[in-house]
Write a structure and sequence with these properties.
Chain lengths: 478, 478
């Protein structure tokens, strides 16, 4: 482990965590956390940090390597270069971890109306569509709409066996074949997948361009692998800066000193809030439209990593905070009433941006008018910040725990930090909960029923069980 | 109250609620609800129903009148007619209840790619933008993008004093004035507001077209008022059918017989699940992209109506389930792990559509290939339904309570039913919790700080308090 001491040129772009309103001297003794409670976690922190470091060194926690994998970054950039300027549309076929990272990058770092701009206004970049569902209304409308000959499809599934993604892929492969001939399909497809699996075999056989997802990188930790990097390079993100941001955060988080490690500290605060204070709902509330999809990316990371039935000792524990995304200021007019007055079961993490790129001044109204004129002369940036502060103050006074992750700006470097911080926070929190943050055994049961009902061989008993269940009488309906 | 008996021509489009998996004989005794527990609520149901009926008759619960208010519907339709064909873009300026209903209608009933289609493909309807935030990056980009001369702005705020909406309005009014002159502004603005307030005065003075929100209709219950109807009429929703659907549901829900009233029954199940079984998180999970925004509309309705500190007897109770939106099948790859294995604190309501308009067949792969071929010949509609069933079965077997609201199709008539059902369910649940579902006192505190910090006169003490709080030392940051 490193001990970070000297200031670095990027420090002015460093993310900051303000957790004052988590602490008992700010939010009150009932749900507030004390210094002592954090200190009490120090011995466990040393053990968890050592375990993480050992796994990292053994290569078992692949996401730690991604910011340093220049080969993978170059492969993604080169692949993007092959399609750059030649396609009008980029369509990602993927679901869960194969979709959420790319969506977060697109929304955070591209123009808010990117897909409505002209090609020249987009700087020649393609429009971006991320098809993360199999709803026939959406997929069908989309296929009617898109010009296949000017589109690149990026099929992303690590296992190569995700039913939803393969279904989309089979449909699109057929459409492409019918339209442009079997030989040309490979000019419109990029397959991003793991080392094994049927999709890789098929791609190799049919000559589709391939990008690899390392085996030790789980879907929800894959945003800095080619899963996120190829689309991001194609829609114009500076992926070198993105990875530099992640490395910068790695440097800050590679210490076992709890009070000095922002990711560990955030993980510890979340854990204490949930387990000791009953704050079982973890709300992420960006005051920035661009960061809302980062919230949805985190929602998978947090839920799937920490929501576990069985702990590392084999005991049934049924743990896991429930992540929720809210949006400032919008949800002040939707969820704030509940957050202020409802049960004391929520911890809110605000995502704040210190220096937005744009602002807009509210004009002064010509004649003084009570209830309107006071707005004149302020600007929207200021309004947004005042609303965030007012919400924090009101919530804190009402005894509601909250903290703020502050980005100096929204750019590839800060977004890289943010992803990496939250990933390390998740792995560390998994250690505190005593569960395995890298698996997802709970989705297996429903997958087997899906296979059974679709008639996949080997799952006949599941098909029978599902049929019996559907036919069960005595249902309650109105 | 009416007693509904004879079948009606619209019955084949009736929404159904299947609550089998809420009941102990399906989901097990630990979190399952018994018939007896529902029966035990019958006396309270009679009292609550009588109270609702009395308030309704007195005109205090204005949303009940909306499906019958043909004058308001005609005003919205006429206003839409004035702009129909004359504008390329409709922009709603509103937040919370002024935005969420229109967004839900737009997403449920318009083409999934509406804003990307050409004007003729849209049937001459305008593109639709709902600006429900003051983020300068979003608002600024949008104003650079839009052609003001071909745009109609619908400013919606019942109080006429919503800071965010007024700020947007002042900016746009200035831009319009600069571009087309003060006299022409009224050709590009429609103001939807309550009977009083500064905005109405200003609109009357400057001659802006006006639509009225009845005083007894709260923002989150206003989707069937001109708040939702004017935009919906302009983007092509059959608002007569929408209101007919609401009336149809009203007919079903105007009985005090708990077992026969779908809205009351759903409200009772939610209440029992929360209060008796500890299921404090209410997830709405549509298996339909078109219905996701209905989930966000409901999220405000449920949170703001039921999240209350003080009950009707003046006692501090801090109640309110936390609504969450998830999306099927997408969130099977994000949240299902937590829902299946995490704490027993969730109730999932699936929104299912029985007969989607479109389907798409997955082609059979040319050569048999393990792990891929089984998908061939199925279609996406079937895949979606099989995934929903598999998720329900797996969750129910894991002891996780869930129910399903089933729409025969997605159309204006069923969406009208859905809105109305959920509104009545909310008012009834408010009765069970013993709180006032129509107010929102918890957002007042932060509003006063906002006014203070913006320098509105009369709020100087709040400004001082906020400053003192910002300047407080001893903060915890990293």
């Amino acid at each position: 482990m490193t001990n970070r001491s000297k200031s670095q040129p990027n420090d002015k772009m460093a993310l900051r965590l303000d957790f004052s309103h988590m602490m008992s001297d700010f939010v009150g003794p009932d749900r507030g956390i004390t210094r002592q409670e954090i200190d009490d976690l120090i011995p466990r922190t040393s053990a968890i940090a050592a375990d993480i470091e050992a796994k990292r060194e053994a290569g078992d926690l692949g996401f730690y390597q991604l910011p340093y994998d220049m080969e993978a970054a170059a492969a993604a950039t080169d692949m993007a270069g092959r399609f750059q300027g030649k396609c009008d549309d980029l369509v990602v076929l993927g679901i869960g971890g194969s979709a959420l990272g790319g969506t977060a990058l697109f929304r955070a770092l591209c123009h808010p109306l990117h897909n409505l701009l002209s090609k020249s206004e987009r700087g020649g970049k393609p429009r971006v569509f991320i098809l993360d569902n199999v709803d026939p209304a959406t997929v069908g409308s989309f296929l009617d709409f898109v010009d296949l000959e000017k589109t690149v499809f990026n099929v992303i599934t690590k296992s190569g066996s995700t039913a939803e993604t393969l279904s989309q892929f089979l449909i699109i492969r057929q459409l492409l074949t019918d339209k442009i001939g079997r030989e040309s399909v490979k000019e419109h497809l990029v397959v991003t997948t793991g080392a094994g699996g049927q999709l890789r075999q098929l791609a190799e056989q049919e000559g589709y361009p391939l990008l690899s997802i390392p085996e030790t990188v789980g879907g929800r930790f894959s945003v800095l692998s080619p899963v996120g990097l190829f689309p991001a390079a194609l829609f114009g993100v500076d992926i070198a800066e993105l990875l530099a941001g992640a490395r910068y955060m790695d440097d800050r988080c590679r210490t076992d000193q709890l009070w000095q490690n922002p990711a560990y500290l955030a993980g510890a605060l979340h854990y204490l809030a949930d387990v000791k204070k009953g704050l079982s709902i973890a709300i992420m509330m960006p005051y920035s439209d661009a960061l809302i999809q980062v919230g949805y990316w985190f929602r998978q990371l947090w839920a799937e990593s920490l929501g576990k039935a069985i702990n590392n000792s084999g005991e049934t524990v049924n743990v896991g905070p429930t992540p929720v995304v809210a949006s400032g200021v919008t949800d002040q007019h939707s969820q704030l009433q509940l957050y202020s007055e409802g049960p004391f079961n929520k911890l809110i993490t605000f995502l704040l941006v210190e220096n937005p790129d744009q602002s807009l001044t509210i004009p002064r109204h010509l004649e003084p008018r009570e209830g309107i004129s006071y707005l004149g002369g302020h600007d929207l940036e200021e309004l947004m910040q005042i609303e965030a502060q007012s919400t924090q103050l009101a919530l804190t006074k009402a005894g509601r725990s909250n903290m703020s992750l502050i980005l100096p700006q929204t750019n590839a470097f800060t977004i890289g930090q943010l992803f990496f911080l939250l990933e390390v926070q998740t792995v560390f929190a998994g250690g505190l909960y005593g569960i395995n943050p890298m698996d997802q055994p709970g989705v297996e049961a429903s997958k087997q029923y899906i296979y059974g009902m679709l008639g996949r061989s080997g799952f006949e008993d599941k098909a029978r069980e599902a049929k019996k269940w559907r036919d069960r009488g005595g249902r309650y309906t109105i």
